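Reviewer 2 asked us to include a model.

Predict the structure of this chain.
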Amino acid sequence: QVQFVESGGGLVQPGGSLRLSCTVSGSIFRRLPIAWYRQAPGKEREWVAGITSAGGVTNYRDTVKGRFTISRDNAMAVAYLQMNALKPEDTATYYCNKDEIESWGKGTLVTVFA
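Predicted model (structure tokens):
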């Protein structure tokens, strides 16, 4: 199965930036649309952003539009989530995945100081 490993999380002040990375095993990565999800304390996991297999089309949930940018490097089998102007409500564990979700990785924790 395809495995996803997220990294890049940490503690950041409001207004700060972080770039999350998602490394994906297997050459199938180039065929996969990739999405970022997050789960905040006390909330359900929610979709954050998505990108098509070739990287030509991206979509974002309304609350992160203009602040987050999803991208990918198919040659390196890595997807990214650049997060700018972070807000306390962005605090969550962030996950990457594909369509037809089989399992979840450990995620990477992003904590934004209130």
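The radius of gyration is 13 Å. The first strand starts at residue 4 and ends at 7. We have added this to the supplementary material.
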